[in-house]
Write a structure and sequence with these properties.
Helices cover about 50% and strands about 10% of the residues. Strand 2, helix 2 and strand 3 form a beta-alpha-beta unit. The longest helix has about 30 residues. The protein has 2 domains: about 220 residues, Alpha-Beta Complex (Spore Coat Polysaccharide Biosynthesis Protein SpsA, Chain A), CATH 3.90.550; about 70 residues. It is elongated. It contains 10 helices and 7 strands. It has a 7-stranded mixed beta sheet, with helices on both faces. It is an alpha/beta fold and about 325 residues long.
């Protein structure tokens, strides 16, 4: 099969018929053997009834309905598990992603050799309240990951099938699938400028709360990609740094007291100095961080996937 299109959705009953009609026009024109995987993330409108009706019209539809709303990441992971196409394309169901981009994305995967291609909505049709926070988080993610793309959160992406079978999307990590792919060894990550349509039906599912969750998710994915298999490198290093700082300050205070006694100066009590308590606090925090790293290392060593690796080819 040439193509799998994974579409997570939540309360998008109005847009689905038009979206499916548009997608089928594009893929039939390109003569692509394809499947469309619609994952209903616990919609409370008539989305599932619409999917049932569309499945009789388009036999290449696969539908999955969640018992409740688990989030976009869970819906994508479900679609990735089911996808059989050589190229897997994800897009949102709100009609803001254009199916006309599908041939270009496929070409970049099959012909240009990319493992993952992320869409870049260079001219966004969203309000400023969404655009500027997105620019900030994309900038931070670029610096943090070393992946030179402009729009990590764009729902329109294309993957080689091996990529979606090798990554696990959870929580709200759908924003950072390029980082997860790079962590799994798929470093050929490209970008394509894509058209961004104005929302035609319904309303956005994301509010200002995404600012905080996005920051936390970036910290999480940064930790996972760098220290998931070696937590002691992070916690142990911070713990040792804090303990060395506390020991240095303590030695400095003791040295000052010895100097004062030697020079017949009335020494100030060490316990009467704020620096002493700062040093004591640094040592306590350092010990706690070191122990946290040690315990995390023990947990990591006991994990069933501690030696997980991907084989790209065998002879």
């Amino acid at each position: 099969m040439d193509l799998s299109i994974v579409i997570p959705l939540f309360n998008e009953a109005e847009s689905l018929p038009e979206l499916l009609r548009w997608i089928n026009q594009v893929v039939e024109k390109e003569k692509l053997a394809h499947e469309i995987i619609l994952v209903d993330d616990g919609s409370r409108d008539s989305s599932w009834a619409v999917i049932r009706g569309l499945s009789t019209q388009y036999p290449n539809i696969k539908g999955v309905r969640f018992q409740r709303n688990y989030g976009k990441a869970a819906a994508l992971q479900c679609g990735f598990t089911l996808a059989k196409g050589e190229v897997v394309i994800t897009m949102d169901a709100d009609m803001q992603d254009s199916p006309e981009e599908i041939p270009g994305l496929i070409k970049m995967i099959k012909t240009d050799g990319f493992d993952l291609v992320s869409g870049w909505k260079k001219k966004r049709k969203d309000p400023v309240s969404k655009r500027w926070p997105s620019k900030f988080f994309n900038f931070v993610a670029r610096i943090n990951s070393g992946i030179k793309i402009h729009d990590f959160n764009c729902g329109l992406k294309a993957y080689r099938n091996e990529v979606v079978k090798s990554i696990e999307v959870f929580g709200d990590m759908h924003r950072y699938t390029p980082i997860l792919a790079k962590r799994s060894g798929f470093g050929r990550i490209g970008e394509k400028i894509v058209a961004h349509q104005e929302r035609k039906y319904g309303k956005t599912k994301y509010g200002m709360g995404r600012l905080f969750t996005g920051a936390l998710d970036l910290l999480t994915v940064s930790f996972i990609t760098r220290f998931a298999k070696k937590p002691m490198h992070l916690f142990g290093s911070l713990g040792m740094l804090m303990m060395f700082f506390g020991a240095f300050v303590t030695a400095w205070l003791i040295g000052i007291k010895i100097h004062d006694i030697t020079n017949h100066i009335v020494p100030r009590e060490i316990t009467a100095q704020p620096l002493f308590y700062l040093a004591l606090l640094a040592v306590i925090i350092g010990v706690q961080l070191f122990l946290a790293g040690f315990l995390a290392e023990l947990v990591s060593r006991s994990a069933p996937d501690r030696n997980k690796y991907l084989i790209s080819e065998e002879l």
